[in-house]
Amino acid sequence: MEWTIQELATRAGITSRALRHYDRVGLLAPSRIGANGYRYYDSAAVARLQRILLMRRFGMGLPAIAEVLADEVDTHEGLRAHIAALEEERERIDRQIRSVRHTLDALRAGAEPRMDVMLSGFNDLYKDEVISLWGERAFQAGNDWWHGKSLDQQRAWKQDTEDLVAAWVTAAKAGVGPASERAQALAARHVEWLRQIPGTPTAEGDRERSIDMVRGLGDMYADDPRFAGMYDDAAGARFVRDALRLYASTRM
Fold it and tell me: What is the CA radius of gyration of the chain?
């Protein structure tokens, strides 16, 4: 099939003047020019225009687009790259939609607008740490999992987390040792809590990386002042660290 310049411009949502400009700068030539002087475009030309418009949408200038197309050897590979870019864009928009919906749900429920974990995402506050320890994919998987929860599910998760932290604090104040059955049971509970979060080595069943993760978390709890406050004081954070490290070494 072929389309005239007017038909293509109308369907693409651009002007015929833009198509003529693309021809002048070497981006998109018509497939043929008829005896009547009309420009005609076939399906290959339309596919090329599709890619030009996509790159324009991503903010690329015409010279950059021309360079990409000129350097390209495999058209199929280029199309696959554009599909991947569009899928990433779709995922980003989906996350934004979920985030706004959660905000609306919170407001309807009479919740405070600034709800730390509930609206920000369970690990947004520690994004840099998560990425540095386990990679961008782990952070994104966990973040998508969190924002995919309903408001009630987020509340329940937050409550479970607070209950786990409170149990650690109570055990530390009771003076039990990191090797005690009570502390090791809490460590097992802590690892199970981690296993529920997609993207973590524990969720993926990677034993060696799971051990490293649990040890690393323990060290972070003891070394980072933010976690010392979470576990009541520095001594409490060190207790959690020691119990987790012992559990990782002997029971994982």
Answer: 28
